[in-house]
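Form 7-S
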Amino acid sequence: MSKAHSTQTESAQADQTQTDETQAGDAARTEDESERARDGEARTCPECGGRLRAEDGETVCAGCGLVVSEYRIDHGPEWRSFADDDRNPKRTGAPLTRSRHDKGLSTEIGRSTRVKGRKRRRLARMRRQHNRARISTKRERNQVYAFTEIRRLTGALSLPDRIRDHACSLFTSAQNEDLLRGRSLEGFAAACVYAACRVAGVSRTTDEVTEAAKATADEQSAAYDALNRELGLPVGPIDPAEYIPRFASELDLSGEVERRAREYAAEASERGLSVGRNPSGVAAACLYTAARDADADLTQTEAADVAGVTPVTLRSTYTDLRDDGDE
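Output:
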């Protein structure tokens, strides 16, 4: 009796186990089918039903060109792997930058006010030793100082990162050509920033750079002359029209005045009125002339101050513009 009851119990348990496995298998198949259905829907265009393809982080329909998704998040690893470079080259890190003497590859030991006593002194010794190893030659020390000054200057002048990187590249080229001998690092840093602005067509005057720099105007001028002479900078005459948008914004002039000033600047260049003259002064004269045409409230002193020239200089260009216009 007991043996028969035990056999029935085992049979019931086996049937229950088989039923559970069957239900689990059915659920798994249902889930797989649902997932395949979702994948099938995801691979078709919601507009035309065409095939989708992924490229450059975007999912685009090959038929109608509809962008289904973009800016996909990279779910790859954020850690850096050096042990298995051959097998797993995937790693991320900070980008290289020309504004650091080591391209931004080195590390720094940070500071903290929570560390006290012996541990703080030990960290200070480690920091000194680390800096000595990171900056071991005079050339690297000069680069660190000059690049720091260039970063400060570009920040003070609200210049983009491309100007900063180009200025650092110019300083490195000047070092390679041995142009720094007998000249100040501050002057060369300011000259590199001004040269990068000239090459990129960004309107900044020498007075603006000198005002923000730690060097004198003579030091900056001598360094820029050496850069231009020895490196052959691809710079040409400055177009006065480059200064007009910034000057118009600082003087709070209307768009109509700015547009008319651009026309005056183009006329001045065509007639040779800007030859031998300060381009920022020509731009200020064009703005003043356009403001007079529009009856805007702008004095010669205000226009001259924003350009860093004297009212006499502005008045000379203004007179020539009016004379040519009358003819």
